[in-house]
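worker-3 :: picked Do family serine endopeptidase
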Amino acid sequence: MHRLWLTFAQAVTVAVAIVFVLMTFKPEWLAPAPTTVIAVQGEAPAGTPSAVPASPGSYASAARKALPSVVHIFTSKEMQTPRSPFLDDPIFRHFFGDRLGPRPEQRTSGLGSGVIASSDGYILTNNHVIEAADAIEVALNDGRKFEAKLVGRDPETDLAVLRIEAGVDLPAVTFAPTESLTVGDVVLAIGNPFGVGQTVTMGIVSALQRSHLGISTFENFIQTDAAINPGNSGGALVNSEGALVGINAAIYSRSGGSLGIGFAIPVTFAKDVMDQIIRTGRVTRGWIGVEIQDITQELAESFGLPDTKGALIAGVMRGGPADKGGIQPGDVLVAIEAQAIPDPQRMLELVAALPPGASARFLVRRKGRELELPVKIGRRPTLPRPQ
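worker-3 :: tokens ->
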């Protein structure tokens, strides 16, 4: 029995030693055989890339959906170099005459972004991206480049519409439903910042209906902390599903770079402007010919007003729609077609939305009395194109 136990102990010791040696020098010999996975038709084998779920918090699908619809816009303009003051000096010209020749010309370039709004080549961008250009080139996400034609522009909302002839359907962006955006929603800003190439940044909607910023005449901006930098102008602001919610327009910055305060034009504004430009080549708005200003607490007290709501009529154009309708300087406009006027910005928006030629009821406060005046709406003058 003792001999049998000794033999067993020696065998176990030798087996353990062999396993130790194999684990040290040839561990692959001890690895289990690979398991073959047979995929059922219509299903991906477990562990394949297509079956791996997206990382928590990832917005890759939204970016993938929107990226092909965002383009780079390159502009150029021919400019003459500054003329030397010596060329206008009579003594200098006496000795050198016109031998220095005419002033040489040079081209300045700019860059921005745009969004493909329809598959037939209409592109939305900012007016300030293209307003000074005499040549516009659009580069698609896949690298193709096309010369772009300016369809129309609207400086008062800082929007413009371009068109390219690609010969094939283009990947148009999906417009988000009206009034679908709320403060706190995640948004992605897509564009070409500083010309480095297509870039996606993420943030949230910080505020809605921002106005009184001095960026454009009609302001109703989305504020976001998604990084927006020079070159992003005209690019897309999309929601977590990749649908367009705004056109990136401006930043608040003291250094030229992003400080976490960016502004985008809501898609409802942008789509309305685009549709009018495509249909008629311009944007038609109502106008009554008045100069307005905010009502401060001091003005409210001097005019005997109960609060600071409304728009103070500071001036009336002689012979304009307001003048013909009986509106006078010093009147306080409090409502248009029963819609309250909290401030001058809202008054501008309501009047602009009225069709020229229509008659509207204006409620004004004059010397303690309220008067309802019918005013026939005129057409808002079109701003001339900068030279």
